[in-house]
Amino acid sequence: MALHNIDHPLARTLISQLRDKDTTSEAFRAASYRITQLLVIEATRTLPTTRYRLLTPLEETEGHRIDLPITLVPIIRAGISMVEPTLGILPHATVGYIGLERDEETAIARSYYQKLPNQKGQKTFIIDPMLATGGSTLQTIDLCKENDATDITVISVISAPEGVSSVLDKHPDVNIFTAALDRELNVQKFILPGLGDFGDRLYNT
Ligand code: PRP
Ligand code: URA
Known about the structure:
By secondary structure, the chain is of the alpha/beta class. The protein has one domain (3-203): Rossmann fold (3-Layer(aba) Sandwich), CATH 3.40.50.2020. It has helices at residues 9-19, 25-43, 83-89, 135-146, 161-170, 198-203; strands at residues 3-5, 50-55, 60-65, 70-76, 94-95, 97-102, 109-115, 123-127, 130-131, 151-159, 175-181, 184-185, 191-192. Strand 6 and strand 7 (109-115) form a beta hairpin. Residues 130, 132, 190-191, 194, 197-199 line the site of uracil.
């Protein structure tokens, strides 16, 4: 479908805190929590709601609720940081996990863990803060589709043009929500200007 680059003063402020090499892990985790919630609110803007009748203390009126089943798929390790803020907004979601780690030389992601529910009829949100080459996201989309997912949205904090193109070229049915579309990848396949290694900055490793 398309790339949605959210443009919001809060998102710009939080992205700047994440990029700053002097931001502590504690402040990095706080900014990452808040920017995830902004992204989730934008990414859920078009979710359908069911109407129902309810009683206020004064009279009967129409209510709305999100009935669509939702599966979150965080990519371990950095994606774990996005689970709690997302569940804060979508408390009824199911969570499946994918463990992937990029090889430091080749930047190709190796799969080491997978626990996914069946995603038939579910809206799936793949959550991972960095979309660089797109390799990790592509592997995750393939696994979700093998698990009957048909409605997939990717949420990433920072994306590189290379990763966005590789995902949308192979999966034109997928939506991507990001808070920053950066310039390019360097030779080590890190995003520029980027923020460095998200997992390392988050967990102070
Ligand atoms: C980072 C990031 C993504 C991946 C993006 O994880 O969280 O999963 O790299 O890169 P790609 O688009 O080129 O695949 P990493 O493999 O460093 O593992 P970590 O989360 O355990 O630090
Ligand atoms: N993973 C990260 O954490 N940062 C990058 O720039 C690319 C992949």
